[in-house]
Amino acid sequence: MTKDESEKNGQSNFADMSVNIAGVNFRNPVIAASGTFTTTSNDAQSSSCDYSKLIDISLLGGICTKGLTMSPRTGNRGIRIWETPGGLLNSIGLENKGIVSFLENDLPYLSNLGPVIIANLSGGDSAEYVKGASLLNESSVHMIELNISCPNVKAGGMIFGLDPGTAAALVAAVRRVCTHKPLIVKLSPNCPSLSSVALACIRAGADGFSLVNTIKAMAIDVVNRKPVFDYITAGLSGPAIKPIAIRMVWELYEALNDAKLQTPIIGLGGITDTNDALEFLMAGASAIQVGSATFVNPHTMLDIIKGLHDYMITNNMSKISYISIRDK
Predict the structure, then answer these.
(1) Distance CA 222, CA 4 (A)
(2) 150 among known catalytic residues
(3) pLDDT by residue (tens digit) across 23-82?
(4) Closest CA to 285 of 252, 308, 261
(5) How does DSSP classify residue 73?
(6) Which helix (DSSP H) or strand (DSSP E) does residue 194 occupy?
(7) Does 234 or 4 have the greater pLDDT score?
(8) Cα atoms in the Cβ-side hemisphere of radius 13 Å centred on 184
């Protein structure tokens, strides 16, 4: 029996929660999801993390930034957030201060927090994505999450993630300028053939995937008899989408395994507690992102980290990867 086999069979009390994704080491697999974790105050002269007053951010595995575009965006008009049973609809529209402002005002602060920093990159067209990737490639972010799945913008966004050829062309263009950073592609749950898009992205240079993004949905204001959102549709997140997200992680893992491509997957979608995180890890995810749940309980991610550690100790697992059931 090898050392790894001995540890896997419960002959160690040490719980190693670290994970390696595309060559980047995370202290644990819990990452703050894009757009859900405020990292700066309103004072542009002194960046500070809003959540730093509530939790010890250094304990997180990673932080994924708000979606970044080359030019600042004001976001969508009208109502942007709408609560639903078991979930949350959002139509933010990629509001952000732009990549240059992020690099100058936010990243220096973020880089000193401790967790891995993942820059979520969005754009209206291929040229904007490429220009943004070029700047981020020369920065201190640890990796780039290429967002080809945002359902809340009229130009760019999800349109890039629905077709294998379109997705591959964008990934290839970004890959040519993204020479120093791992490239994680954020996939759309609204895609008609997720595995085809993923395999095309790998051939174009993707180092891994995150899924799922929000699911395209809508709500109607029955009092005023009109759609709630000016943009009509919005993105659904929260516990309501968790079973769908787990199914997609499972199916993508299967497709990658069948193609003999051991590509890391970061799972997200409705994770609110340790059991949810365990389901994603068992389905084949190497790490997880937590989003909407943080709005309800800022301590959610730290509770999950502790819960995963306790689960490993209780089940005599020395490495976080042993949680997966895919090799049984």
Answers:
(1) 59
(2) yes
(3) 999 999 999 999 888 755 444 434 445 788 889 999 999 999 999 999 999 988 999 999
(4) 252
(5) B
(6) helix 194-204
(7) 234
(8) 26
Predicted confidence (pLDDT) per residue in 169-219, tens digit: 999 999 999 999 999 999 988 888 899 999 999 999 999 999 999 999 999
- Those residues whose C-beta lies under 8 Å from the C-beta of residue 184, and which sit 6 or more positions away, are 21, 22, 118, 143, 144, 145, 146, 206, 207, 208, 209, 210, 266
Contacts (Cβ under 8 Å, ≥6 apart) of 45:
none
Residues 6+ positions from 194 with CB-CB distance below 8 Å: 187, 188, 211, 248, 251, 252, 255
For residue 297 the two structure tokens come to: 């309980």
* CA 96-22-70 angle, 5° bins: 20
Structure-token pair, residue 97? 């201060």
- Point out the catalytic residue in the list 49, 150, 178, 201: 150
Three-class DSSP category at 314: helix
